[in-house]
Write a structure and sequence with these properties.
Structural class: alpha/beta
Shape: elongated
Helix content: 40-55%
Number of strands: 8
Mean pLDDT: 79
Number of helices: 13
Low-confidence stretches: 27-31, 41-57
Oligomer: single chain
Strand content: 5-15%
Largest sheet: 8 strands, mixed
Length: 402
Amino acid sequence: MDIVILAVVIAVVVIGALGGLVVGSRRKKQVPPPPPAAPDLTAPPAEPHVGDEAETPRDEPRRTIEEVDLPDGGTATVAEPPVVEELEVPQLEVPEPTAGRLVRLRSRLSRSQNVLGKGLLALLSREHLDEDTWEEIEDTLLTADVGVQPTQELVERLRERVKVLGTRTPEELRGLLREELITLVGADLDRTVRTEPEASRPGIVMVVGVNGTGKTTTTGKLARVLVADGRSVVLGAADTFRAAAADQLQTWGERVGAHTVRGPEGGDPASVAFDAVKEGKEIGSDVVLIDTAGRLHTKTGLMDELGKVKRVVEKHAPLDEVLLVLDATTGQNGLIQARVFAEVVDITGIVLTKLDGTAKGGIVVAVQRELGVPVKLIGLGEGADDLAPFEPEAFVDALIGD
């Protein structure tokens, strides 16, 4: 039995081997597939030569140049050139002429008329001028900041002239008061702002005063006054300790074509003043205006600093003017400031600002008496051309009205 089983197994193995040989021989005898047919290739068109068309030439009629319609020469359009934007050049302002400027600004003194001029006229027009009335006249003058001594002098003269005059018409009283006020203000004082250049140097003006009086603004407005009179101006921004003071002054100068010399913030004011005068001499400017600091900013103090600026500037040439800017509304406090400045820098003239809208027009008299120097300019508003040369007759006429 075992022999039979073994024989069967051997037979199965032999049969399987023969079958594998037959299959392998058949695979070797298979015919390879035929090669694919070659594609029909179209030759690329020849590249165009110079003068040829980009496409395949075609037989078609061509027109001569005489047959081609050309555009009419008269209607030919020319390409416009590109528009180039030009930088906008700021136009310079033309300041108002200074002649008669105070007359044009007369209405700005209207509030001063109520207390000083019109108040005095009303009191003098009373039928009986007793002691009480004269005391009211004195009080009116003192309230207007005329000062004690000038008030006493004016009242004494008015008493004498009214006694001699006898009957008093409104026209006579107005004429009387006008004459006495003009005398009190000082019509004979020289109020010229000395800015005349000499052969080798410009006129040099230093502007001093405490902050808040309008000092830097006044310097800028003074530049406009000088430009209106035909002068060329250099501005020196020597107030290096107040933020934006130099920028403010430079803006004023640019409006009228005045060059501004400035230094670094917190720098030496005397150095800036020196450079301003030097540049004014080099370019042949008519006037150099120097704006100075107006507050305590160093250990040595404001007055020592101003004295230094003055000494340094005078290494070039002596100062022609030292203008003190005072706020007309400060009254007696302004007089105290004036005394301190006068002791240090030899004030030659006074600029009264903010005189509009105040009932204290008498400060003109008081400050002149205190310093012994004239009021040369007055500010009557916020406008750029509201700085006017002081004219005693026009000032008094504005105070007492028509």
